[in-house]
Amino acid sequence: MSTNRQYLLITDYTLVLMPTVSYGKFTLEIPVRVKLFIDGEEVSSSKGKTFTRENPAHFDQTIAVVEEASTDDLNKAIDSAREVFDKDKYGWVTNYRQRLRILYKTAEILREEADRIAVTVALENGMPIRQARAHVLAAAEVFEFYAGLADKVYGDSIVLSNGNVSLIFKEPVGVVAAVSPWNFPMTQAARKIAPALATGCTVIWKPASYTPMSAMEIYRALARAGLPKGVVSVIYGPGATVGNDLVKHPKVDYVSFTGETTTGKLIMQQAAAGVKRIGLELGGKNPGAVFDDASIEETVRAIVFGGLRNAGQACGAISRVLVHESVHEKLVNRLAEVAKDLVIGYPLDDNTDMGPLVSKAQEEKVLGYIDFGKKAGFKVALDGGKLSGGIYDKGYFVSPVIFDNVDPRSRLAQEEIFGPVIAVIPFRTEQEAIEIANSVIYGLTASIFTKDPAKALRVARKLQAGTVWINDAYTQPTEGIWGGYKQSGIGRELGLYGLEEFLEIKQVYVDTTGSLDRPHWRTVMKIDKL
Hints:
Blueprint: H1 3-9, E1 20-23, E2 26-29, E3 32-34, E4 36-38, E5 41-43, E6 50-55, E7 58-67, H2 71-86, H3 96-112, H4 114-125, H5 129-147, E8 156-159, E9 165-172, E10 175-179, H6 185-199, E11 202-206, H7 212-224, E12 232-234, H8 239-248, E13 254-258, H9 261-272, E14 277-281, E15 286-290, H10 296-308, E16 318-324, H11 328-340, H12 360-375, E17 379-382, E18 385-386, E19 398-399, E20 401-404, H13 411-414, E21 421-427, H14 430-437, E22 442-443, E23 445-449, H15 453-462, E24 467-470, E25 485-486, E26 489-490, H16 495-500, E27 503-510, H17 519-522
Parallel strand pairs: 3-7, 10-11, 10-13, 11-12, 13-14, 15-16, 15-23, 16-21, 20-21, 23-24
Antiparallel strand pairs: 1-2, 4-5, 6-7, 8-9, 9-27, 14-26, 17-20, 18-19, 22-25
C-alpha cells in the first residue's frame, strides 16, 4: 500500500484531542459514562468500581468510563430476571403480542438512530463508519425478524393409534445469560437478545468490555420501546470474574456465548456443573476454495471483503485461500493488488476501508503471526504489518499481509489469527482441496469459487462447515443460520433455528378413553384383581 496515498485520503483529525468528537451533524462528548442497566434502571456499581475504554484509533483518548458490576449487582440483575420469568410479571411470558410490539419498536428506534449510533460503534470498535452504519441497520433487522416470530411459536398435537393425544408445547427456556463479543457488537448481541425475548425469556447480558457504548445504545432502545423492568439487565466487567459468576449462577437456565474457542470450552465446563443448556458460536479458520474455472475478478472481490472486512476481526472471515495451481499465480497477484489499494485510516473518515485493530493485545497477537510467517520462510505476496507515521502512531493500525505457498499444517494455516492476514495454499485436485479445507479443528464457514454448479454443490456437501458460500463470502441473511461444525461451536443463531435455541419442548399426554383397562398397565399389574 502506498503510504502517501493514504495520507492524501486521511484528513487531519486534530478533533480527537478535544473533549468532543464530531462526525457530520453528530457531536459526542467524551468520555461517555456507561452505567449498569439493572431492573430497568441505569445504576452505578455498588462497589464503586469502573474501568475505561480507549479509542483504538487514538489510544491516548479515553472514550468511555464504564461501571464494573459487583457480585451484588449481578445477583440483583439475576433475581429481577428470575422474578419476571417465574411469576410471569407484566404478563411477559404469556403475552406474546406485548413482546412483538417491543421488538418491532426497538428495530424502529435503531433504524432512526443508525447514523448516530454508528459513530459510537466506529469509535470504540475501530470499524469504518460506512461498515458501522450497515452494522447498526443489520442489528435492527434482527430485532424486526424475531418480532415477526413472537406470535408464531407453535406447538403440535398427535392423535395416537389408541385414540389418546400427545400435545407438544414449546416454552421459553427461562433466564438467559448472553455473553457477546466486541467485533460485531450490535448484531451479535441482537442475535441472542431478540430471539430470547421473542420466546418470553428474560436476559442477563454481559457485553464485551471493549464495546460498552454499543451495548448502552441497545438497552436504551429497548427501554424506549417499553421493555418492562427486569426483563433485560446489562452488566459489565471482566470475563474471568463477572462472566464466570454469570455462567455458573444456579438461577441461570441457558448460556449463549460468542467468542473464541478456548473460552467457549471453559464455559462449557462451567455450564456442565448445572447441566445448563448452552449455545456456543466460536472460532473459525475458514477456507475459500478457488477452482480453475473461477472468475478471478469476482473471486478477488469476495476474498477481500470476506477476509479483510473489519480488519479481519471476524470469526467467519476467509483466512485460508486454497487455489488451483493453474490459476494460482494470477489469483495471488490480483489479490495483492486489490488488498494493497485498501485505505487504512481513521474510522470516522468516509474514505476508510479498514480501521485499526481493537486493542494493543490484538495488535501484538496479529503481529506475532506475521513475524512467525516470515521466519518460517513463507513467500510474502503482500508485505504489510504495523503502520507508522501521522495518525498511525496513535492507533493499532496493521495493513494486510498475504502469505503464499503456506504449509497447510503450519500454525499460519491452522490457528485463528483474527486480523488482516491471509494464507494462500495451492492445490491440484478437488479431493485435495476438500482435505485441506477440512484439516483444521474449526468448521464455521467456507467459500467455493467455480462456474460449475455441479462441482460447487458436490464440494459444498463434503466441506465440514456450518455455512458454505458459492461465489460469495461473508453474507449473513437474517433468515438463514449461523453456527459451526467441530470446535466452531454448538447450536445455531439467526433464522427459525435461532429461535429454537431458546425454547424447551414439553409433551403433555392426554388419555381420552377414561378406561380402567389400558393395555400398557397390564404389563406390570393384573388389572382384574384391583
